[in-house]
Amino acid sequence: MEKAEFVVVANRLPVDHITGADGEQTWGRSPGGLVTALDPVMRNADGAWVGWVGQPDLDIEPFEFDGTHLVPVRLSAEDVELYYEGFSNDTIWPLYHDVIAAPRYSRVWWEAYQRVNRRFADAAAAVSAENAIVWVQDYQLQLVPQMLRQSRPDLTIGYFHHIPFPAYGLFSQLPWRRQVLQGLLGADVIGFQRVADAGNFARAVRRQLRYETKASGITVPNDDGTTRRALARAFPISIDASSYMQLARSEQVQARAVQIRESLGNPAYILLGVDRLDYTKGIQHRMKAYGELLDDGRIQVEDVTFVQVASPSRERVAAYIQLRDEIELAVGRINGDHDTMHHTAIRYLHQAYPREEMVALYLAADVMLVTALRDGMNLVAKEYVASRVDNRGVLVLSEFAGASDELGSAIRINPHDIGGLKDAIMRAIEMPAAEQGRRMRSLRRRVLEHTVEDWSRDFLQALDAFHGREETQ
Ligand code: F6P
Predict the structure, then answer these.
(1) Is the ipTM of this complex over 0.85?
(2) Which is the closest atom of ligand 1 to the Cα of 313?
(3) In this structure, are 231 and 372 located in the same domain?
(4) What crossing angle do the helices spanning 241-249 and 433-449 adopt, rounded to 10°?
(5) Pocket residues for ligand 1 (CB within 6 Å)?
(6) What residues contact 243, with CB distance under 8 A and at least 6 apart?
(7) Per DSSP, what are the bridge partners of residue 388?
(8) Which InterPro entries does this chain map to (predicted)?
(9) pLDDT digits (tens, 9 = 90+) for 8-52
């Protein structure tokens, strides 16, 4: 293939490996928002996407899919264990989410992280045309920007960090903190979800590397004694709002929402939680609050049902195995205490669903509970808002989710304050229609005026404007 002018580098490719009923292997487009956002850019720019297919030990040659050139990076079973499950998801993930679970610092994992980041950087360098734009995604690939800059100084390099960047006091635990900062600073533009994340990053750069930072600009020394400028600022990600609205307006989806309510025994109120099964999401906190409201007699199981969709995630990492056990124990206890023959307290679904079913659930839910203890953005909050074309429903939103910076008309809560969370749930259940409408209209304005397309355009414009601003000392 021709070399590409625009290259995305992400841990995963934008496709899923599907085995058909007849055993035939095909590819299907992944449902994620990033894929949708970058689709037009990839097509127009004749782009390439470098990433892992999601399964170990698969040797797949580069191939075309839906107008995009896909470049698979092979990960062995050992790479998956050490780089993906180990360093990415048992070191960086818990450390960057405020140490909700204890991060493990393993030198063997760090070796694997460097080795695999090098493999992604080499694959990206090989497919990039002269002066191409390369956009690296997320915490699994923090060393790739610097590796690319060293091998291909002609490239314009962007990096977007989808998860939080922690306060300096936590980040400084990382034994390889300087290498990670240097890795990220290989990019011309380093994007974060929140202003606070960009601030935490700039502080870490000042404290660890002693580089000068001014507003969003960072002065980075080059090897030859000159300096260059990098930009580190917030670019809050969003969703493809119109596709959610379109589904929410479809008759089939609306009929399915009615059917969901019926199948739950037509309770007066449905509370909904939708998360990957992850300890950052505060699933246990919301279950505790709901269970206590039933215990206290402030709500009855006939009137208020709680639906929790917890999609399977990182199932071989110890903290996730333990979390699943704890959640399922809590569900069993609450249901055992409160279920009747006709009504269940918590309808718990350890499954993932297609987008149509999710929008039907959003339409069926009177109250959406987003109680994350820490979350880069939380797109579920935005999906719920975009889907409520009827301007009804109440969003209860953790102040520790990035979305809270934008969605000021939600009922904002501190998930650690179980008393406050219980009161917020009651307030949401009892909220008059007029207030629901007022709040939902204001939330919708924000989500509809800043979509994932705006996000990628803003980032790429900043990258374009910022590249090549050399400074000499
Ligand atoms: O939120 C960070 C993130 O990497 C998302 O980009 C992704 O959808 C999710 O976590 C799932 O992660 P994994 O690739 O580990 O299944």
Answers:
(1) yes
(2) 16
(3) no
(4) 140
(5) 11-12, 32, 138, 162-163, 313-314, 376
(6) 36, 355
(7) none
(8) Glyco_trans_20
(9) 999 999 998 888 888 888 898 887 767 877 877 787 788 999 999
